Amino acid sequence: MTNDLTRLSAADLAAHLVSGEVSSVEATQAHLDRIGDVDTAVHAFLHVSTEDALATARDIDSRRAAGEDLHPLAGVPIAVKDVVVTKGLPTTAGSKILKDWIPPYDATLVERIRAAGLPILGKTNMDEFAMGSSTEHSAYGNTHNPWDLDRIPGGSGGGSAAAVAAYEAPLAIGTDTGGSIRQPGAVTGTVGVKPTYGGVSRYGLIAMASSLDQAGPVTRTVLDSALLHELIGGHDPRDSTSINEDLPLLVDAARQGAIGDLRGLRVGVVSELSGEGYQEGVSARFAESLDLLRSLGAEIIEVSCPHFKYALGAYYLIMPSEASSNLAKFDGMRFGLRVEPEDGPITAERVMSATRGQGFGDEVKRRIILGTYALSAGYYDAYYGSAQKVRTLIQRDFDAAFAQADVLVSPTAPTTAFKFGEKLDDPLAMYLNDVATIPANLAGVPGMSLPNGLSDDGLPVGFQILAPAKADDRLYRVGAALEAALENTWGGPLLAKAPELEVAR
Ligand code: GLN
């Protein structure tokens, strides 16, 4: 029984908890055991919060026994990306500069998770400050893709995706600035959603690029993402960019979608997000899913977004610019690492320089330098200013496309998971992994990646769905319909095809 609990979706596990068949302590312990069994090999977690998780589980079990009215996900364990601050639990953002930092407060989304009674299993590995597409830029070692331990799990949220794919957690939190929820989802065979910008509070996320960052769910099913999205989403007065409106009904949309009737829905295939650079198996699976959508009654049309070809260039000016100013606060003076120069006077400037020199990794330094340069007097208009103009053009492309289609679709990532080290010496090759995911961040629109089968190399590929801002429900309707149709053709979930991980005991 213990082992089986880790295979259940969050929705199914929640049903077992409600019926009283299973306690939250049992469910939480089963996942902690699974972490003990496989995480030496996977390394999805930077910190496992055993005591904290079991305390929550015990509390929920006794409140349930007392007949209290609980949140539908109460007692279902969850993993949280290490860029989200958690009171009393270490939070490093994958960086040495925050080693051993214990935040004195919770992010809003963590407050909501705790209030609903979800035991927090631990904090997941990530590229340092969420900069990367492979989790190889973590200061704490690589996370391994459960499909093939010699390969990357995507990034920056490789830890959350790998934890969910390896059955170490049924739910996880990710963050997505340019694709860090969706691309790891694609290469690990999991579901990931980047909500509409402003849909989930950013209060308590360690900011990378504030105008692009969004937190969202990482799960094994579309319905589970909807359940988690509804829990963490909605207005927060502590985030000035938070949308002050009710969320659309996401769980309802997922349940409706699963019925599999997409008649009347117009699906736009973005012609700029296919073709050259996309692996053959990725394109083939994508085309097959379009046929499936057609068979469910959707109308498939081609749309053009001519400025998407400049998205990557604009992103790699805007993101580093914002990151360079957001990361200025890590100076060795207030919290985290402090390094004093080995010789010479101990001045504030020299301590800052030594701290930042040793505390930040190469990719973070590269982006701080890029961003500082793009913002410097004399270059500001040419670089940052032009990038902002491109951003507007991309937003207009989306507006035009959504006038023709209810949702837009593309492959999530151009390739399957690559091997460790393959792109480490070539930052541009690494950046290119996000060509299909970045436009949504620049425009603030929501996006989902869901498992779309295996490429010729036997590794998972993702299907991306994009919707207009504040219409996140469309992702769930279409995603649940496609998921059901795909699982019908596979005879079950895609993850059932993943090799069993060797257990360490
Ligand atoms: N891979 C992209 C980058 O390196 C996206 C990162 C993210 O979404 N956090 O910037």
From TrEMBL:
Biological process (GO), any one: translation
Any one GO molecular-function label of the UniProt entry: glutaminyl-tRNA synthase (glutamine-hydrolyzing) activity
Pfam families assigned: Amidase
Organism domain of life: Bacteria
Domain called Amidase: residue spans: 26-475
Active site residues of this protein: K81 (charge relay system), S156 (charge relay system), S180 (acyl-ester intermediate)
GO CC field: glutamyl-tRNA(Gln) amidotransferase complex
Catalytic reaction list: L-glutamyl-tRNA(Gln) + L-glutamine + ATP + H2O = L-glutaminyl-tRNA(Gln) + L-glutamate + ADP + phosphate + H(+)
Keyword Hydrolase (UniProt): no
Keywords for this protein: ATP-binding, Ligase, Nucleotide-binding, Protein biosynthesis, Transferase
InterPro entries, per database record: Amidase (IPR000120), Amidase_CS (IPR020556), Amidase_dom (IPR023631), AS_sf (IPR036928), GatA (IPR004412)
Stated role: Allows the formation of correctly charged Gln-tRNA(Gln) through the transamidation of misacylated Glu-tRNA(Gln) in organisms which lack glutaminyl-tRNA synthetase. The reaction takes place in the presence of glutamine and ATP through an activated gamma-phospho-Glu-tRNA(Gln).
Family (UniProt): Belongs to the amidase family. GatA subfamily.
Subunit (UniProt): Heterotrimer of A, B and C subunits.
UniProt protein name: Glutamyl-tRNA(Gln) amidotransferase subunit A
Species name: Oerskovia enterophila
Gene giving rise to this polypeptide: gatA_1
